[in-house]
Amino acid sequence: MNPVALAFAAFVTAAIGTIGGLGGAILLVPVLVLSGMEAKYAAPLGLVSVAAGSLAAAPHQLAARVVNHRIGVATEIVASSAALIGALVSGLIGQSVLAVLLGVVALVAAFAGARRKGVRNLPDSSLSVVDVGETPGTLAGVYPIGDGFVPYRANRLPLGLLGMGMAGLISGLSGVGGGWVKTPTASEVMHVPVKVAAATSTFTVGVTAAVGLLVYESQGRIVVSDAALVAAAGLIGGTVGVRLQHLLPPPLVRRGLSVILAVIGVVLIVRR
Q1: Tens of pLDDT along 167-219?
Q2: Domain boundaries, the chain
Q3: Rounded-to-integer distance, Cα 56 and Cα 231, Å
Q4: Model-level pTM?
């Protein structure tokens, strides 16, 4: 793919993925493969896009105090370990198998994106701004919403860690990033509010991506010039996506993105 087309693809997928809340890599990697790029070279570019998006979003989310570091660390240990295994295994898999795997991942992401709802946590009138943040020594905390403050606590940690391990494994194998698995796992399984789950996921997926990229680099699968283009375009696209979020309803965009992913998934599987 020529540099202009690559930069455009990275920009557009990052913007759309940010608005929809699924991340740009889940769309970028399949698009690159369908354009003729080998999956083993498209996967690293997907993780570069993930890392760039995580880096761009981190300052805002940390300032808003919605990232729960304890939940992030507890789940990221499992996710990164699984990503390491996934990246190592991906170097041993043939091109056609990787393409089919990517198609299956796209279909699963389409289903997850279309159905994602999230647990609704209710404000507690006894809380105030001084309570916002993490509760020391626990996987709990308080976050602001409107004029109220919502308490929460992570539940079913073993099951949640299993989901995070799957997210890391998929990320390492396919390069699509694991945020679209991490966020619903934290919200639907562990009962962490969607706002906190999404922020913590965005904060940690950069670490998961970095682990996969280290393995990809050792396998000689990273083209530095392409990676630099994707990183720059992804940062700009993600910034544009954040600014457009208030103009376009994320649920509507997410459903549209799910339809696109479903079509891409079927094409990837059929054309093998």
Answers
A1: 899 889 888 878 778 888 888 889 888 788 888 888 888 899 999 999 999 99
A2: 3-270
A3: 10
A4: 0.81
Plot region of 118 (φ>0 → left; ψ -120 to 50 → alpha; else → beta): left
Please give the pLDDT value at position 214.
94
Sign of the CA dihedral running 104, 51, 75, 93: positive
Centroid of chain to Cα 199:
10
Tens digit of each residue's pLDDT (9 = 90 or more) over 218-250: 999 999 999 999 999 988 988 887 777 667 665
Ordered DSSP codes for 45-113: HHHHHHHHHHHHHHHHHHHTT---HHHHHHHHHHHHHHHHHHHHHHTTS-HHHHHHHHHHHHHHHHHHH
